Amino acid sequence: MQERLPMTDILCYADSYIQAFTATVVAVDPTASRVALDRTAFYPGGGGQPHDLGTFTLAGQVSTVTKVQRQGEEVWHTLTGTLPAVGVTVEGRIDWERRYKLMRTHTALHILCGVVWRDYGAQVTGGNMEPLQGRMDFEFEALRRELVQEIETRVNAEIQQARPIQVRVLPRAEAFEIPDLIRTKINLLPEGIAEVRTVEIVGLDLQADGGTHVANTREVGHVRVVDYQSKGKINKRMYIVVDE
């Protein structure tokens, strides 16, 4: 019987602003050139947000983290260079410039989602992001330039409200008592999950989410809706850019 690995404590779920940390290697996979740690601040990807990049440092030697992936309860980090051994302590460091851009972008998409839901009652049907740019699909039958411009104006007005962003972890039963917790057309939360992480833009939006976010909408900066497309009879896509 294969020995069960300890669960990785994913630090960024509680604090998105952790940039560096120390951790112990709990497993090594030389075939895939990757290691699992007892804890990590690297976001493993999910919900449209890409995984983090960064470095590990051990005895002055720096290895680049090229991929981060969650498998079951463990988070694996793919590395360049020599792999550290089980039991060794490493220092991890996030590519913070890239991560912070993703945090701003993810929050911008939540603001967009909140505005569209509150003002137009449209559900999300999909989304994706890269640093400072992203796209989101909604259940709109029609989308015209004037409406897109109106949505952009309302999104930036919400950013300027300097709304705080709060992250909580709730028991599943309590979380699902929240109206409209799931904004996507399809409920992506597995049946067996016992706790649900929620992200609230106070006064605007509250939904289940696993990604990293800024602490206040003002940090997002200015958002532009740069394009929109029809992806079906009731599926319309908006592309956004978060200005530097």
Overview of the molecule:
The model has no long low-confidence stretch (mean pLDDT 91). The chain has 2 domains: 9-94, Elongation Factor Tu (Ef-tu), domain 3 (Beta Barrel); 99-242, Threonyl-tRNA Synthetase, Chain A, domain 2. The chain has helices spanning 96-120, 145-160, 172-175; strands spanning 9-10, 20-29, 34-37, 39-40, 54-58, 61-71, 74-79, 89-94, 124-130, 133-138, 165-171, 195-201, 205-208, 223-230, 236-242. By secondary structure, it is α+β, with helices and mostly antiparallel strands. The protein has 3 helices and 15 strands. The protein has a 6-stranded antiparallel barrel. A 4-stranded antiparallel β-sheet has the order 9-10-15-14, with helices on one face. Strands 11-12-13 form a 3-stranded antiparallel β-sheet. The longest helix has 25 residues, at 96-120.
Overall geometric form: elongated
Provide the CATH top-level class of the largest domain. Answer: Alpha Beta
- Walk across the major sheet and give the strand order: 2-3-7-6-5-8
**Cα gyration radius (Å):** 19 Å
CATH architecture of the largest domain: 2-Layer Sandwich
Q: How much is the average pLDDT?
A: 91
Order of helices and strands: EEEEEEEEHEEHEHEEEE
| Sequence stretches where pLDDT stays below 50 over 5 or more residues | none
Largest sheet: 6 strands, antiparallel, barrel
The number of distinct helices, counting runs of at least 4 residues, comes to 3
Give the strand content.
35-45%
Number of domains: 2
How helix-rich are the residues, as a percent range? 10-25%
N-end to C-end Cα span: 52 Å
SS class: alpha+beta
The count of strands amounts to 15
Name the CATH superfamily assignment of the largest domain.
Threonyl-trna Synthetase, Chain A, domain 2
